[in-house]
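agent> fetching stored inputs for the NAP docking request
agent> found them:
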Amino acid sequence: MNTISHPHVLMISEITADGKLTLGRGISSKILMRHMSHEAELLLHKTRAEYDAIMVGSSTIRIDNSFLTVRMVEGKNPVRVIPNAKADLDENANVFDTSLAKTILAVSEEAPAERIAVFEAKGVDVVVAGRQHVEYPRLMEILATRYGIKSLIVEGGPTLNRYMLNAKLVDEIRLIHMPFIVGGDDTPSLVGGMRIGSENEMIRLKLKGTAMYGENLVTEYDVMY
Ligand SMILES: NC(=O)c1ccc[n+]([C@@H]2O[C@H](COP(=O)([O-])OP(=O)(O)OC[C@H]3O[C@@H](n4cnc5c(N)ncnc54)[C@H](OP(=O)(O)O)[C@@H]3O)[C@@H](O)[C@H]2O)c1
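agent> prediction call returned; pasting tokens
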């Protein structure tokens, strides 16, 4: 039998001309997204409807309180996946309203049993995928084998992007270019915290497409590693 062990992963991000994902540290990217063309918003929602699952980091949930649902086009909601080792997110965040869509909270062995129980009481599926931190190769395997998830969108933020890229789990990247410059040394950019030692460690991308969606250039890359 030919079962896949990892979903196909597409990383999507809105990004300014200077590589930033938001206006400053701790500030919601929803402010930047308000300036996105309607055509690009439709692309985001259409892609969500085409994929089995969508994952964002716990800080993005804290800051943006995202729904991660399909709203602008007809289509099914993807399964929402949130890595949060200690299960310390607010269980009342929008993404844990399981009447809208299924949500999987990925925790580590260190997550307190009483916190897991709080999420399970809300209908959230809790999976243990690591000892201290969520281990993304393990999580991808659980999503594929236990849930049959074949395709996954990663919609940031930079810390999650970094761990997924470092684990070589990202197949494609799609950037929605926002024609703004925001600056700021500590303003989150596409990939946070990663530092390479030499040119050999650069992650190589192969440009495979460009298109205009309203005023937003969209670029698509395969990740070559
Ligand atoms: N423009 C865009 O497209 C876009 C998209 C999304 C977000 N954003 C912006 O990005 C910002 C938030 O980004 P962020 O980088 O601060 O946070 P983030 O990537 O949203 O969240 C960090 C994630 O990394 C995990 N993590 C931390 N250390 C880890 C480790 N050692 N091993 C495995 N996993 C680990 C965290 O899990 P734990 O909970 O276990 O620590 C958490 O799930 C916000 O301002 C948001 O608005 C922009």
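agent> quick read of the result: Residues 8-223 form a domain with the Dihydrofolate Reductase, subunit A fold (CATH 3.40.430.10).
agent> awaiting further instructions
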